[in-house]
Each structure stands twice: as C-alpha cells, then as structure tokens.
Amino acid sequence: MARKIILDVDTGIDDALAIAYALGSEELELIGVTGTYGNVLVPTGTRNALAILELFGREDVPVYAGPGHARAKDSFEVLEISEFIHGKNGIGEAQIPDAKREVEAKSAVDFMVESVREYGDELVIVPVGPLTTVAAAMEANPEFAANAHIVNMGGALTVPGNVSAWAEANINQDPEAADMVFRGVGDITMIGLDVTLQTLLTTEETAKWEALGTTGGDFLAAATNYYIKAYETTAPYLGGCGLHDPLAVGVAVDPTLVTTIDINMKTDTEGETRGRTIGDETRLNDAEKTAHVAVAVDVQRFLGEFMRRLTDLAAATPSR
Ligand code: BDR
Ligand code: CA
User: Fold this and answer.
1) Which partner for 222 in 54, 58, 94, 240 could form a disulfide, CB atoms 3.0-4.6 Å apart?
2) How confident is the model at residue 82 (pLDDT cuts 50, 70, 90)?
3) Which pLDDT does position 189 carry in this prediction?
4) What is the superkingdom listed in this entry's lineage (predicted)?
5) Residues 6+ apart with CB under 8 A from 228
C-alpha cells in the first residue's frame, strides 16, 4: 500500500523537483500540497505548485495555503539571496501556464491537523520550507505532535549553515517554529545540509530531460539549469546544485538512503547562533530520542532513483 504524504513547500526550484519526485513515486500517495513562504511569497508558491501539478497531469492533488510569515513577525519579504537562487517567479524564470484551478478554501493548518487525525501512522508530512505551518498545527491540536511523522528538509548539524555560519535557510526563516517542532514532535527525521549538499545535479543530467522533447522535460531542465547557474556563483566548490528538497522525499520513500543518528534536537532562538539546529542538552540523557538526523547518504543510489523517477514522469507529458 502506498504511504500517504503531505508535501509542505515554498516552491522554489528544488521544491518543484520534490513535487516531481513525489509524483514519480508509486510508493507514495500525495494527498495534498501545502504552501508556505520562503523562497517566494505564499501566493507565488501555491501558484507554482498548482501549475506544476497541472503540467504533470495531477489536478487531483489539492493545494492549501499556510501562514504567510514567521511566528515572531507580522510580514515577510523574499530575501535577495532567495531571488538570486530561485528567480523572481520562484521557478528560475521558467514559463509554465497558470493552473485552471485555485488553492482550496481550507487552510494548510487545518488540512494537516485533520490528515494526522484521520491517517495517523499511514501518513508522513514532508516540510521542505520554514516550519511555520507545522508549528501552527501543533498549536491548533494538542494531539498533533505525538501522532505526526515528519521528514523535514532543514538545518545543519555537522556542517555550517547556508545563510550564516549557524543557520540553514528554512530554519533561519522561523527559528521559533523550528524549536517548537524539534522539541515537541515525537518522530522527526532531519534531512539537513549535512547530506543535501552531497547530492548534486549538473547540466549533464538536465540535458537528458531536454532531450525528451516534452513539456515536462523542458520545464525541469529550464528551472534546474537556472538553479545550477546560481550555485556556480554561491558555492562553486560543489560542482552542481544541491538536491535539498527531493532528498527529503526520497527518504520518505526509502529511509535506507541515509544513515541517521538518534538525538533530541532543539533550535537556538537567541543571540548569534539564532537558527542553529543542535542537540538539546536538557534532553541529552532521555532514553527516548525523538529526532533522527541524517549524517550520511548513499549518493549514487539516490541520484539514480531521482533521475529515474523524474525522467519517467517528464517523458509521459505531452511533446513540446
Ligand atoms: C532550503 O532552502 C530553500 O532555499 C530550498 O528550497 C531548500 O528547502 C535549502 O537550505
Ligand atoms: Ca524549499
């Protein structure tokens, strides 16, 4: 039986690749996409998610909008660096038609709460943006934290952050939310920069999508080429772009892609280390460890799975 999944995205180029990975995985049933802010504003992100779902023929997957800014703030503006990496439209200036439908009237928070209540252990939530919506779901329902299973992209434990020496981008947007989630949720797997900066894509792979001659292949290639170019400037030593968000989906399908350590985690919310994800010293000796932090990844196996799933998905879209 397919595992139910909710993907919480700030679509974003690697978010788009994560949506495609989920759609290309028969082990998963994507019951909904929830839109958060981060790489883009919520309306831009949900617009992109709807358009991508339609491009791949999946108008059956509902899209819900989450809160538009961090817990401790009352507004949000896209950072210059986000715009540089993902483009103004969030998908590397790739042009795909607007979807014919709109976001659902129900909020992302209500959808998450209701889904955890209804499906329990059959469901995994994969947040690949700031953890604001998940924290709001915890607040909305006292049983949510104990019953939710989460695989999130965010944080860094054994490597520096990517927006500061301490902080990774998703966590940096809302450290208070991240701290609530790490301290409160009973089962969370952290897919951080420790592993996502080891899974890299180059134009050698995107050329294979281009060669398909399909609308889906063209979109994946155009968006990802933009992202690869940005990485050439921000992190030239890597030699490719980081497949952050798709790796979290990959691990939701197959946890053996990564090696994890069991540890109780927290997020610093004060001082110069604000946004750092680190072990919680107050729960160091607790017998139960609620977080599983990925520290190693089977790079070749993941890249093989990633290319197979996305290429098959894109091959099935109409010719350009
Ligand atoms: C994360 O930040 C966002 O820019 C990406 O989409 C990814 O979720 C990487 O730090
Ligand atoms: Ca993201």
Assistant:
1) 94
2) very high
3) 98
4) Bacteria
5) 201, 202, 203, 206, 240, 241
What pLDDT is recorded for position 33? Answer: 99
Q: Which residues are catalytic?
A: 10, 244
Measure 296 CA to ligand 2 centroid, in angstroms: 20
Ligand 1 mutation pick, 81, 128, 234, max ligand atoms within 8 A of CB: 128
Ligand 2 centre to CA of 42 (Å) is 12
Task: Please give the domain boundaries of the chain with CATH numbers for all domains.
Answer: 3-315 (3.90.245.10)
3-state secondary structure of 63: strand
Which pLDDT does position 1 carry in this prediction?
Answer: 83
Collect all residues with Cβ–Cβ distance below 8 Å to 97 and sequence separation of at least 6: 51, 54, 55
To test the ligand 1 pocket, which listed residue (8, 10, 131) has its Cβ within 8 A of the most ligand atoms?
Answer: 10
What ligand 1 atom has the least distance to the C-alpha of 196?
Answer: 9
d(CA 137, CA 144): 7
Pocket of ligand 1 (CB under 6 A): 12, 14-15, 39, 128-129, 153, 162, 168-170, 244-245
Q: At what angle do helices 215-234 and 203-210 cross, to 10 degrees?
A: 160
